[in-house]
Recover the amino acids of this structure.
């Protein structure tokens, strides 16, 4: 579909976007007036979400926050809806051996990189209760859930893509917005992923190393310098990953897939012997058929000490 046709369809869908906007405002009003109940907990809850659909870089922020609070001696747990996974009833405790097809890719990535209990449940309130009751956590981080108003929270963090911001500014399905931009005025922090903007906390995704998906071998960032490699990404904004690889001097053959794409072996069987580079979120879906030609780029979200200190003071 070309850009002109997509733009036309977006405008044709504006009446549906208007209905979505009214319904979202009405739902929020019901919680604000206590006609719908918000459940509060004995344990502090930090929500890391966004006001748009598509990748904004919130999962690396979740991982960075969890690891930070672990270092501060907190017993942290994470809740997630498990988007893209097959688990839809009750709570699922995600571990390293959980299949991404069951839990969803992001919960498995968080569990793998933080080693904390990650609970998947479409009912986030129940997920928080299960973490508190069964795992005695003293801090819960919610991966997404900014609009899940039934779940009480002490701190709200909205992550914004520093380059794409809010797209065409339309609500779903004509555009990417779940809530209006004015929602950002009510959250505790706005984290800008990849750019600098007054009043927002800057976060940069910093590459650290390449890790072999099959063997866990680690190599430095210049390991593939000037080599031809397949670049595979099934994330919200694949071009960001491709640009990162190019900035490392890698000659890429790029393959973009939809966000949360469930990879199968045949999709990565290329007719050559070039290395295959992917994101960490994608690699957890390829572990069962990984070869030693597959590598992922390990990145971490850099957050300032000033932000972390202010965040801690709110708990």
């Amino acid at each position: 579909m070309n850009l002109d046709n997509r733009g036309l369809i977006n405008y044709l869908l504006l009446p549906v976007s208007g209905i979505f906007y009214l319904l979202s405002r009405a739902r929020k009003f019901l919680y604000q007036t206590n006609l719908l109940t918000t459940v509060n907990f004995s344990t502090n809850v930090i929500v890391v979400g966004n006001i748009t659909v598509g990748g904004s870089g919130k999962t690396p922020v979740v991982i960075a926050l969890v690891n930070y609070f672990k270092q501060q001696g907190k017993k942290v747990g994470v809740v997630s809806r498990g988007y893209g996974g097959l688990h839809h009833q009750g709570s699922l405790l995600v571990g390293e051996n959980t299949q991404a097809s069951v839990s969803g890719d992001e919960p498995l990535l968080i569990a793998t990189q933080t080693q904390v209990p990650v609970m998947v449940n479409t009912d986030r309130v129940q997920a928080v209760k299960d973490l508190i009751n069964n795992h005695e956590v003293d801090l819960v981080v919610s991966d997404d859930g900014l609009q899940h108003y039934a779940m009480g929270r002490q701190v709200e963090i909205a992550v914004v893509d520093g380059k794409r911001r809010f797209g065409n500014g339309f609500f779903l399905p004509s555009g990417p917005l779940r809530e209006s931009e004015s929602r950002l005025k009510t959250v505790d922090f706005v984290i800008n992923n990849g750019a600098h903007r007054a009043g927002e906390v800057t976060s940069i995704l910093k590459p650290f190393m390449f890790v072999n998906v099959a063997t866990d071998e680690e190599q430095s960032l210049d390991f593939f310098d000037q080599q031809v490699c397949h670049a595979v990404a099934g994330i919200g904004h694949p071009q960001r990953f491709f640009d990162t690889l190019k900035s490392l001097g890698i000659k890429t053959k790029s393959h973009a897939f939809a966000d949360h794409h469930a990879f199968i072996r045949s999709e990565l069987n290329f007719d050559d012997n070039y290395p295959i580079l992917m994101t960490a979120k994608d690699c957890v879906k390829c572990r069962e058929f990984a070869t030693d030609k597959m590598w992922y780029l390990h990145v971490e979200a850099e957050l300032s000490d000033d932000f972390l200190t202010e965040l801690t003071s709110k708990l």
Summary: Residues 8 and 23 are 24 Å apart (CA to CA). The chain has two domains: 3-203+303-313, 205-301.
